[in-house]
Amino acid sequence: MTFREDFLWGGATAANQCEGAYDVDGRGLANVDLCPVGPDRQEIIIGRKKMFDFDDEHFYPAKESIDMYNRYKGDIALFAEMGFKVYRFSIAWTRIFPNGDEEAPNEKGLSFYEDLIDECLKYNIEPLITITHFDFPMHLVKEYGGWRNRKVVDFYQNLVRAIFERFKGKVKYYLTFNEINVILAASFMGAGLYFEDGEDVEKVRAQAIHNELMASAYATKIAHEIDPDIKVGCMLAAGEYYPASMKPEDIFAAQKANRDNYFFVDVQARGYYPNYKLKEYERLGIMPEMKEEDAKILRENTVDFISFSYYTTRAIGADATNYDEANLIKTIENPYLEKTEWGWQVDPLGFRITMNEIYDRYQKPLFVVENGLGAKDNPDENGYVEDDYRIDYLRDHIKAMKDAVDLDGVDLLGYTTWGPIDLVSAGTGEMSKRYGFIYVDRDDYGKGSLARSKKKSFYWYKKVIASNGEDLD
Ligand code: P53
């Protein structure tokens, strides 16, 4: 058998993209609540258009999402029916600390997640918790300027301490930040950063990144102190950059782009800033402020494993200008690859390449925590979807993952597909960009019964899990 006997098969979601119930049981307002569907979304999530409160002109899909806050028992029962070994979900920071800077956590928030965890454990599903999946309290945006402020590192420590203490003995796997490198592309959604005109964006961002890296190291430290059995992982939006040609300048551009992403993991997995980044910061005059203890904290608290999302590879050239606007993370068109309906390039071999690159670089266990196809579905009158396109995508990627394990010897802990149940898209806010094995009756503007139904891929994935990845037909 290719995959280890205890291989963790499952699916992954994020609080704001599935829970809804944005204002109940004391929950505070978060950045992710304020990202509307439609043409303004892009400017808002990158931190260029200000959206600090709801207005009447926009539709905000996270307010209700797919109402998993109220329906999680039924949804987890469906995951269990597919045979999930693991369920990756995230915690809404504002359920635990509604403003972010309180002294004591909100009991209703903690007990909601404890119930959710217990529901998983009932079916022997291992909970894998993302501590923050783009989530950030709006109070900390307005009063502290988001992750640019070092005080936020302390607030984050309060959050993780509350979580680790409460769930001790029940939860073994944690991720500190979802797609930590998304701060480069979407600074408001990824890190609560809004940029005023004339601000040195790169400088602010470098400081925010440093603060997040410190928060991540402190979380690892606190986790291991509270419960030595906890495994903490970092999480990268992965996908190798290919050079546009064999021209050395293009190769160099690709190396630079890859380093800009791996920089985060370099610090989280090795415990220190790589020279190429220190030199770049010096050159640009944007070296973040660091405290005396920082170097030691980073060095002593590296992650136990490396997790990442993989949807596609990217391509870059030294003089390229034809960047594809469909992608939040920029890429030029790769003529050798097909594209999805949303313009994401499909590249299963790139998955194997990416896994090898990460494993070569860090030599720590890997965990694939997102992969999948966002596509339009056409359900019949019973809500059944014949989603062979989704099955094909997943099959090809699982095969590539098998090769990475079988032929290249990558040490792999598990695989969770993105959005096992249809949910709101992070990039576009649409509901119609569906990833699920389970269909949810809801459209881009909140119409629909929210009823759940099984797609063809539901039965397929069940078989994949039951055979530990051997039966992919
Ligand atoms: P959607 C950009 C690039 C790579 C992954 O994305 C990204 C993004 C943000 O769109 O997000 C991750 O929903 C993220 C999930 C997200 C998923 O990929 O735009 O961790 O929250 O839903 C898929 O199709």
What labels would you give this structure?
two-stranded parallel ribbon, 14 strands, eight-stranded parallel barrel, single chain, 15 helices, TIM Barrel, globular, 473 residues, alpha/beta, binds 2-(hydroxymethyl)phenyl 6-O-phosphono-beta-D-glucopyranoside
What does this protein structure show overall?
This protein is of the alpha/beta class. It has a single domain (8-466), classed as Glycosidases (TIM Barrel), CATH 3.20.20. It has helices at 15-18, 41-45, 68-82, 93-96, 107-122, 138-144, 151-166, 187-191, 201-226, 248-270, 275-284, 294-300, 348-362, 388-406, 456-466; strands at residues 8-12, 86-90, 126-132, 173-177, 231-237, 241-243, 305-309, 314-316, 338-339, 345-346, 366-370, 412-418, 438-440, 452-454. The protein has an 8-stranded parallel β-barrel with strand order 1-2-3-4-5-7-11-12, surrounded by 4 helices. Strands 6-8 form a two-stranded parallel sheet. Strands 9-10 form a two-stranded antiparallel ribbon. Helix 14 (388-406) links the parallel strand 11 and strand 12. Helix 13 (348-362) packs parallel to helix 14 (388-406). The radius of gyration is 21 Å and the shape is globular. Bound molecules: 2-(hydroxymethyl)phenyl 6-O-phosphono-beta-D-glucopyranoside.
Indicate the topology.
Blueprint lengths: L7 E5 L2 H4 L22 H5 L22 H15 L3 E5 L2 H4 L10 H16 L3 E7 L5 H7 L6 H16 L6 E5 L9 H5 L9 H26 L4 E7 L3 E3 L4 H23 L4 H10 L9 H7 L4 E5 L4 E3 L21 E2 L5 E2 L1 H15 L3 E5 L17 H19 L5 E7 L19 E3 L11 E3 L1 H11 L7
Parallel strand pairs: 1-2, 1-12, 2-3, 3-4, 4-5, 5-7, 6-8, 7-11, 11-12
Antiparallel strand pairs: 9-10, 13-14
